[in-house]
Structure formats: structure tokens, C-alpha cells
Specification:
By secondary structure, the protein is of the alpha/beta class. It has a single domain, classed as 2-Layer Sandwich (D-Amino Acid Oxidase, Chain A, domain 2), CATH 3.30.9.10. Helices cover 27% and strands 28% of the residues. It has seven helices and 15 strands. Strands 3, 4, 5, 8, 9, 10, 11, 12 and 13 form a nine-stranded mixed β-sheet that branches. It has a six-stranded mixed β-sheet with strand order 6-2-1-7-15-14, sandwiched between helices. α1 packs parallel to α3, α1 packs parallel to α7 and α2 crosses α7. The longest helix is centred in the N-terminal third of the chain and has 19 residues.
Length: 325
């Protein structure tokens, strides 16, 4: 396999780099920001194909990612835990979701009072701080450097690579995993920001995730982690302001306490906002042949919206397949 430059160091870029290096490629990651400073760092990071289409290809990515995370949980990879989940439904007769075949223990269950239905299942949850550190360490063990370098044009990457690998005999494969920045770098008008807000509170002893996504007051979810609980949230396309919003945080907290009363009085640890890399039409994972990366081959892997973690390893495996084709 040829030399590869992965542009972008969020979870999608880092997992792509790991898989490429494991397949025998000589890989370098270029990133404008340290991995801990990417939007991946503040993701709630629960396996769940949020706002993704019922496409067999997407189901394959999601299924494969589930399998990888389940294995990592068994291996006690930092930050990865299998978490029981309850999805509360407001409409009677709701059909099973298209992604149910990827979840081994998915099952309907009697609903609590006030709801029309309930799904129960166990899925991976990922605490992104420790997990991103683990991915970077994994790359280090694979001799993959992660270098700070802002790429303004994908066509510049072969020249950058020539400085990194003077002995390279041919242009590298470039993997564009730049998330929201791909709108400019790939000249893709379908890419757009989707603002998400969450509140972190001290964990009063919760172990089960709870979702009420059709809450008319706003999407509502409670995701316990080791020491805290992620409360959400918002899904706001084309909104870019990420400064503090006390009103939004208070509304999230109120919805979540109503859903899980054990949260009442839990100390607030933080209020976070980030811009998910949305894309009309879903994630773009394909080779481009128009020459946007100059003489290099170019594979795009971006536009995962709120499902970057959920699709990460499946997409990384497909990047390897494209690279070897």
C-alpha cells in the first residue's frame, strides 16, 4: 500500500489512520488542532445512528463500528463501556428502527406511564477524552506521527508529503477527514454546521442511558459515564454561535430531570457547545477523481454529523478497502 496522509484528527481521521497503518501503509496525520481540541472531544459519544439515513451501506458501517467498540469494551480500552439504554417512545405502533439488526439485544419493552412504547438495548458509550488519548497512543505505537499543520488546499498535501518522505516514489493517498472544514476544502456546499449543546452533571449513581428524542420541548437524553452524566441536548442546523447560553442549559437540565428524577440537585460540572459536521445527503465516503489533491489519489471521509463515533470504525475499514483498490 502506498504512503498516506490523513488530514484531520477527530475520531474519523484517527480511526482511519489506525486502520491504514495496521494494513501496512506509511501514514502521517495532519491536523489544524490537537485531537483533544476537536469537536470529537465534547461529543456525548454513544453508539446511535443519530439523524442518519436507512441505507444498507450506513448500516454496515454502524454494525462494524458496534462490533469494534464491543470488543474494545471487553479489552477495557480506556473510555469504552457497554451501556444499557432505554428509548422512550411517544407514538403508538412505532416500528423497530432500521439500525436494530446491528444491536444484538434490541427488544421492545412495556413503556412507563405517559409513554406509548419503549425500546431496550445495550450499546457502546465512549468517554472521548481518554479514548482520543488512546487512539493517539495507538498511532504512536504504529509509528504514525500526528503533526500540527493547517491545510488550506488539498492540492498542497502532496508537496507537504514530499517534505516528510523525500524518498517517496509516487504521490501519497490523501484521506480528507476534515469534518466541517471539508465544506471549503472539498468545495462541498452540502456541508453545514449543526450546533449541539450539552450539560455535564455529577453522576448520582446512574448506570443506564435514557432517551426521549420526540420530547416536544426538545430532544432529551441522559448518558451516564464514570464520574459524570451527559445531559442533552440540541440539534440545530446552521447555527454557529457556541458561546454560553444559560437559558438553553437550564432547559436541557429541566427536561433531563423530568425524565430521570434522580438527577435533581446533581451539581453542574460544565456546559458545552460544539458544531457537528453535518452534510445534506449524509456522510461522503468515496474516492474523488477530479484532481482536487493534485497528482495524489484522494479519498473523502467526512460529513458524519452527530454519528461520527457511531460510524467511525466501519468507515475506516472502507477507507482501507478504497486505498487498496
Amino acid at each position: 500500500m502506498r504512503d498516506v496522509v490523513v488530514v484531520g484528527a477527530g475520531v474519523v481521521g484517527l480511526t482511519s489512520a489506525v486502520r491504514l497503518a495496521e494494513a501496512g501503509a506509511r501514514v502521517t496525520v495532519l491536523t489544524a488542532d490537537e485531537p483533544v481540541d476537536t469537536v470529537s472531544r465534547i461529543a456525548a459519544a454513544v453508539w446511535y445512528p443519530t439523524r442518519t439515513s436507512a441505507d444498507p451501506r450506513v448500516l454496515g458501517w454502524a454494525r462494524r463500528t458496534f462490533e469494534v467498540f464491543a470488543g474494545q469494551a471487553r479489552q477495557q480500552v480506556p473510555g469504552v463501556v457497554m451501556r444499557p439504554t432505554r428509548m422512550l417512545l411517544r407514538e403508538p405502533g412505532t416500528a423497530d428502527p432500521w439500525w436494530a439488526p446491528a444491536v444484538p439485544d434490541f427488544r421492545p419493552a412495556p413503556p412507563p406511564d405517559g409513554y406509548a412504547g419503549q425500546w431496550r438495548f445495550t450499546v457502546p458509550t465512549v468517554e472521548m477524552g481518554p479514548y482520543l488519548d488512546w487512539l493517539v497512543d495507538r498511532l504512536s505505537r504504529l509509528d504514525v506521527p500526528v503533526r500540527r499543520h493547517r491545510v488550506d488546499r488539498l492540492a498542497d498535501v502532496p508537496g507537504i508529503a514530499a517534505g516528510m518522505w523525500p524518498s517517496a516514489r509516487r504521490p501519497p493517498l490523501v484521506v480528507n477527514a476534515t469534518g466541517l472544514a471539508a465544506g471549503k476544502l472539498a468545495d462541498d456546499p452540502a456541508v453545514h454546521p449543526v450546533r449541539g449543546r450539552i450539560v455535564l452533571v455529577e453522576n448520582p449513581g446512574l448506570t443506564t442511558s435514557v432517551r426521549d428524542e420526540a420530547n416536544p420541548a426538545g430532544i432529551t437524553y441522559v448518558h451516564p459515564r464514570g464520574r459524570d452524566v451527559v445531559l442533552g441536548g440540541t440539534f440545530e442546523p446552521y447555527r454557529t454561535e457556541t458561546g454560553p447560553d444559560d437559558g438553553a442549559a437550564a432547559a436541557i437540565l429541566a427536561r433531563c430531570v423530568a425524565l430521570v428524577p434522580e438527577l435533581a440537585g446533581a451539581p453542574v460540572l460544565g456546559r458545552l457547545a460544539g458544531l457537528r459536521p453535518g452534510r445534506t445527503g449524509g456522510a461522503r465516503l468515496a474516492e474523488e477523481t477530479s484532481g482536487s489533491a493534485g497528482p495524489a489519489r484522494l479519498v473523502h471521509n467526512y460529513g458524519h454529523g452527530g454519528a461520527g463515533v457511531t460510524l467511525s470504525w466501519g468507515c475506516a475499514d472502507e477507507v482501507v478497502a478504497l486505498a487498496g483498490s
